[in-house]
Amino acid sequence: MDRTRACGACDPGSNPGRGVILKWADAMATGKGETGRPNELLQKGARQAVVNCMKISPSDTVVIIGDTGSKRIIEAIMIECSALTGKVTLFNLDDFGKRPLSGLPEEIASALGNATATFYTAASYKGELNSVRRPMLSLATKKGREAHMIDITEQIMETGMCSDYAKIKEVTLKVFNLVKGAKEIRVTTELGTDITATFNPDWKWIVCDGDIPNMPHRWSNLPDGEVFTCPLELNGTVIADGSVGDYFESYNPLRPPIKLVVSKSRVVSLENDNKQLERELNEYIKSDKNANHIGEFAIGTNIGLKEFIGTMLQDEKFPGVHIAVGNSYPEQTGAPFPSKVHCDFVIGKTTIVVDGKIIMKAGKLVLE
After folding, report:
1. 129 phi and psi, to 5 degrees?
2. Among 296, 266, 290, which Cα is nearest to 204's?
3. What is the per-residue pLDDT across 226-272, written as a single tens digit (0 to 9) for each?
């Protein structure tokens, strides 16, 4: 997937910087974008993010960080934020040099030092997890909270961000209550996934229901809807037929699926008929000592989603299971497996059995 899309609103040879974003925002103030088409669903998704998920108020100092490809989303979020607070600053990462950037620009770092609310909407690039996003997240959550919307698209804004978040919160809590004390969870699919995970009672399950201000860690991906932890041990075969994450999203949707064999939480085999993807992923899981370790086990709870779209930000929230290699988010889960990488694999139409109780059958939640 080409991540260096041109800016249609820019003059030839100009940099797509913050002034240009403000110009785009002026165009959106009428409720129409540069195409002249109404953007009701896009604006609804932005309102959901700003009002229901981040709960922006007049006292907030907001920083919005995006890129040229997400300009219409930036505009929509800015409109909603500006209706609630007069303190909104916009940044376009493409204005600071060729991507991937080698570090978080000082101007952005300085603004984040005073921010109480941050929205991130830019595309993922190899290397920026450590050079840009982690430093940004650290600064953004010192005094405030962050909506992390990496690789967000207008399609996602009009679907996953338009889901009923009151219902998602209700479903997520039900799932959390079913799994928080689990000793063993088995996941199977008709395609051949068959994994069993055990859990450490001292490691936390994290609720991600879109209510960001009330999350202990003060940030979450949007769209939201999942519960996750790091398993004590995971064994078996994974057939990932949904999406693959990090900077591999250009390979989505996964046709054919990726096969991973896991023993004692370590990936011992990774195969795919696309040999280039297979080679890249096998190199990826050698990035550091925990890069091949299962750092996340998660159950998606966004019941408003109807199909995979090939973007991890949304597909991992689809009702089902995803696992990830790499970083176990020690600061959240308590699991001691830090890594500089984190890559998710989404499994479709799962049957989930928690300590002998079925809570999902072929992709349909069974919570009553």
Report:
1. -55, -45
2. 296
3. 999 999 999 999 999 999 999 999 999 898 999 999 999 999 999 99
